[in-house]
Amino acid sequence: xxxxxxxxxxxxxxxxxxxxxxxxxxxxxxxxxxxxxxxxxxxxxxxxxxxxxxxxxxxxxxxxxxxxxxxxxxxxxxxxxxxxxxxxxxxxxxxxxxxxxxxxxxxxxxxxxxxxx
Length: 117
Prior knowledge:
The protein has four helices and two strands, in the order H-H-H-E-E-H. By secondary structure, the chain is mainly alpha-helical. It has two domains: about 1-50 and about 70-80; about 80-115, no CATH class.
């Protein structure tokens, strides 16, 4: 899935604000995640007032740890289904079962996983 640019999110946030809808309603209509929409709205408001900070490098004598962001935002292209089921088999494999699942396919998958134990 391709990530949207800041410019794309700025346009989405502008259309949302003009729509008069809640974040959840607008996100559902356009197929994006409501939390991402709200976060970008906040980010665009607060980001325009601040200059980017310069990155500091670790001294050459110490081993630098890789920079890891505590938060990662991923754009969702469709509304999240609330009625999905999650099946966890004995081996620890997790299977997300959406409401429109094919029972025969799920049965075959569980049989294959069970045979691998």
